[in-house]
């Protein structure tokens, strides 16, 4: 069973979250959640990057943890900034690897790093949240 909730964060800004099975098929539902949040906040120009980032973060959790569930978090920590996070119960932190030119794996965090304004990992008592932030381009 999955659950989606939109609720005010501590600052009064809305946040979206959904708990999903830790499996590759969950990336589709996570992309829909990110897309819906960005459209609701009139940040549609970030949709392609946001969907790709959440897919890579889910894939990372699937490949590198033994967790049964992940939680997708989409929040607005500031004006023009959206944070996309994937929480799991593993405390193993992600590492930006150095895959070879012909390697088929190991590029997910490079992509997250390239697309996001910044990214990181917050360790929690129960596990971790790997997150990436996107910024709306400043208008001239």
Sum up the structure in keywords.
single chain; 140 residues; Heat Shock Protein 90; 6-stranded antiparallel sheet; globular
Describe the structure.
The protein is built from three helices and six strands. It has helices at 26-40, 47-64, 108-115; strands spanning 3-8, 14-21, 69-78, 81-88, 118-124, 127-135. It has one domain: Histidine kinase-like ATPase, C-terminal domain (Heat Shock Protein 90), CATH 3.30.565. The longest helix is centred in the middle third of the chain and has 18 residues, at 47-64. It starts with a strand and ends in a 5-residue tail after the last strand. With 140 residues, the chain is α+β, with helices and mostly antiparallel strands. A six-stranded antiparallel beta sheet has the order 1-2-3-4-6-5. The mean pLDDT is 87. It is globular, with a radius of gyration of 15 Å.
């Amino acid at each position: 069973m999955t659950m989606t909730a939109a609720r005010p964060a501590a600052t009064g800004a809305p946040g979206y979250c959904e708990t999903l099975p830790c499996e590759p098929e969950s990336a589709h539902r996570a992309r829909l959640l990110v897309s819906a949040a960005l459209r609701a906040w009139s940040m549609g120009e970030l949709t392609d990057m946001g969907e790709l980032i959440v897919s890579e973060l889910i894939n990372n959790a699937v490949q590198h943890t033994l967790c049964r569930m992940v939680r997708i978090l989409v929040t607005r920590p500031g004006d023009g900034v959206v944070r996309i996070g994937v929480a799991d119960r593993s405390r193993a932190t992600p590492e930006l690897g150095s895959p070879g030119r012909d390697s088929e794996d190991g590029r997910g965090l490079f992509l997250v790093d390239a697309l996001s304004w910044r990214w990181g990992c917050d360790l929690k008592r129960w596990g971790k949240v790997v997150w990436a932030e996107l910024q709306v381009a400043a208008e001239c």
